[in-house]
């Protein structure tokens, strides 16, 4: 049995299928973990959702997955470059959205944690899981629509244990699904979205700050890194290698750390 952890699909269904074939993935024997952002930007968002659900994949939610849920069930609107209409118009949309809405923000096995964007250096793995459970309860509760309606926003931009209500939930989601650069006091920046040279003054990638444990963190979200984590102070693996932007789709074999890539079939795309 092997566990394959695959980076952001972003609707790149053809590459997803080709990568699984290269891996000789067998759902009766192997496990499939997806690091979030299954949808949007690529042409096969609907097919990616259907494939992941049919294969029994274990997925964490990314910012584009939340965007889909907000658009479908929180009164949000699609943006110009979104490729989500096929999902919203699909006959099985409710089953697919129900499946997506049941996914967590973290997946843990021993000292390994998979999360879409990252976790704060001060958060232990156990604490991160507990915060994830708070969001899951809101997503799966009777007020899920209200939660999704009020989810998006950049404030608060710094975690405090005494945060309450929607501010608390929004901050948890922003850390785990949107974070890139933080300051030494763990303030989040949401403006810079490119490579490391786009860091605002006083900010650095979250993985360049040390932790007090030996955690191995697997994340996606940051295609501009191209799978690299320079000057990382922790054991961390970036798995979003920009398939939707003409890069590649990457799988990591959890047990060995081996990487397998499938080149994108898309060229000339912009974010």
From TrEMBL:
UniProt GO molecular function: bis(5'-nucleosyl)-tetraphosphatase (symmetrical) activity
Catalytic activity: P(1),P(4)-bis(5'-adenosyl) tetraphosphate + H2O = 2 ADP + 2 H(+)
Major enzyme class: hydrolase
Domain Calcineurin-like phosphoesterase: 1-145
Annotated signal peptide: none
Domain of life per record: Bacteria
Entry keyword set: Hydrolase
EC number per UniProt: 3.6.1.41
Gene3D superfamilies: 3.60.21.10
Role, per record: Hydrolyzes diadenosine 5',5'''-P1,P4-tetraphosphate to yield ADP.
Annotated family: Belongs to the Ap4A hydrolase family.
Name by which UniProt lists this protein: bis(5'-nucleosyl)-tetraphosphatase (symmetrical)
Organism: Vreelandella vilamensis
Higher taxonomy: Bacteria, Pseudomonadati, Pseudomonadota, Gammaproteobacteria, Oceanospirillales
